[in-house]
Amino acid sequence: MSERSLFSHPLIRSELLERRAYQESIAKECLRANTLVCLPTGLGKSVIAAFVAAERLLEYPNKKVVVLAPTRPLVLQHFNFFKKILKVEAESFAAVTGQIPPEKRASLWSKKIVFSTPQVFMNDLIAGRVDAGSVSLIVFDEAHRAVGEYAYTFIADRYSEEKGSLILGLTASPGTNLEEIEGICKNLWIKRVEARTPSSPDVRPYVKGIKVEWIKVPLPSIFYEIGGRLKAFVKEEVKRASSAGFLPSNQTIKVKDVLKAIERARGQGGADTRVKEAIVSLYGLIHGLKALELLETQELSSLNQYMEGLSKRAERKRTALRRRQYT
Questions:
Q1: Domains in the chain and their CATH numbers?
Q2: What is the mean pLDDT of residues 296-313?
């Protein structure tokens, strides 16, 4: 990129932003290689992401930018912020979430700036509704979730195979030790880390005093009851898929292992009853792992919303099947 200031970028509405030198400095570094940005909440990670997105849109006009966030409210928050800050036509933006039926999502992936949850993006990648090669930048918000059983890892693995790909991870909570941070970097193919604290010299002028008080709250017994049932379900589905030869039975299973197993199973064709049953178990396993993650990282209402969404999708499929049977 040129040496011009990102605050005067042709795709940025700079009049809406406070000019903070550290944001521009970090954004320019992010354009050089896959980067993890670690900034406390309130210091403008979204502004940095918007700078990087604007430059990638200018540099690769025939490709799109994808911004991923773990929940629908966060997806919509990013959608509204980028739409406000970027000088891009309103029709070039799209928010793609699980509330939109799969058959209607394909056209939305043709937009220039797409905001989505990792589960939806991952599913549409696997189904071929979106091409990873058409993406010039993927922003992973809440990047610390790229550990263990999470779709971020699968997406990063797939996208990193594309020529000219660029990954930007954002987090306020990278971890408490070097091992945790290295784990995020490995899973997201991160090459460099840009970190600031409120006491950093270039950040301090913009930070007012903050007092933090930690309060430990005991979990209600219902959390443990639901968690026990979900873990039992996951264990049973792993056993079924393992017996069919699609998963190892002697190691911890992660989402990316399940997704690769689904691709192998699909590659064997759908005529074999054993393969069909294995695919059903594998998809059930993904939903079980996701439900566990929601229980352990968010509130019960998020888990309830997810389960209700699965129920509605299943009912729509049953209805469509009945209609085909009687036509």
A1: 6-206 (3.40.50.300), 221-325 (1.20.1320)
A2: 82
